[in-house]
Amino acid sequence: MNSLTTFDQFYIKIKGNRWYWLFSIFCRLSLAYAFIVAGMVKILGERFASGLSIIHPMGAYLEALHHTGYYYTSIGIAQVLAAILLIIPRTVTLGALLYFPIIVNIWILSLAVRFEGSFVTSPLMVLANLYILVWNYDKLKYILPFKKFSNYGIVEKPKKYSNKFPILFFAGVIATVGLTIAIFVFGYEVMPRNSLSDCKKQFINTEKQTVGFEFCECIHTKGKPLNECLDAYDSVTKK
Are residues 119 and 51 in contact, defined by beta-carbon separation less than 8 angstroms? Predict the structure, then answer.
């Protein structure tokens, strides 16, 4: 029995479990809500995260993006469209496919500029999106580059779900959320934060207070690129 057949058997099994099904609905609605809120801001022509300074690394990006005109609006339309498709049961797969490249882009951007506004939520949203894609594997497998696959068709909604609670799965979900938060809190020595005062708080009463304050001033007062400010910080702390 090859691994794909083993996966198919496992897949059919989880499709008949009520808890996996409820989690898929939770992921769909959570993702849809997030993109409707973010998308409507763009469609209405408002700057996303308007409270963020325009010299902050993420603020500078969002300010420039806001001035791209209909391109900015089109991103909002794509987000709202993906959200609506996720909500409608018959179009969930299409919505997840549209959603995925957008949220991956947001995730990479958040990591690149260490933006705490989506530093934790964006990777969790990527994982939730992946869960929905896997949940709809029976529809997606026909476009995947597999030479062979089990042709059992579209898995129909069972007349009666299994109520066995998947302890290991949800323990993994909780562990993943905890690990993501831990990486945000402890994964980086310095974070630009969203304001000068918040940035300085991470250095108060530490041996790196002086150079830390200089890093914060570099970001929030001088408006220099994050990498340049990090290089200046590392040149002092790693001597």
Answer: no
- Where is 4: in which H helix or E strand? helix 3-15
Task: Enumerate helices (H) and strands (E) in the chain, giving the number of each.
Answer: 11, 0
Alpha-carbon distances, residue 63 vs 14, 39, 94, 131 (angstroms) = 44, 16, 30, 32
Say how far residue 64 (Cα) sits from the centre of its chain.
Answer: 22
Give the position of tokens 């991470």: 202
Supply the pTM of this predicted model: 0.92
Distance CA 150, CA 157 (A): 18
**CA-CA-CA-CA torsion sign (96, 100, 101, 105):** positive
130: its two tokens: 């992946």
Query: In the structure, what pLDDT confidence band is assigned to residue 4 with cuts at 50, 70 and 90?
Result: low
Q: Where are the alpha helices (DSSP H) in 44-120?
A: 57-66, 70-87, 92-113
Q: At what angle do helices 3-15 and 18-43 cross, to 10 degrees?
A: 80
Q: What are phi and psi of 195, to 5 degrees?
A: -150, 165
State the Cα–Cα distance between residues 81 and 212, nearest whole angstrom. Answer: 43
Tens digits of residue pLDDT in 131-178: 999 999 999 988 888 777 777 778 888 889 999 999 999 999 999 999
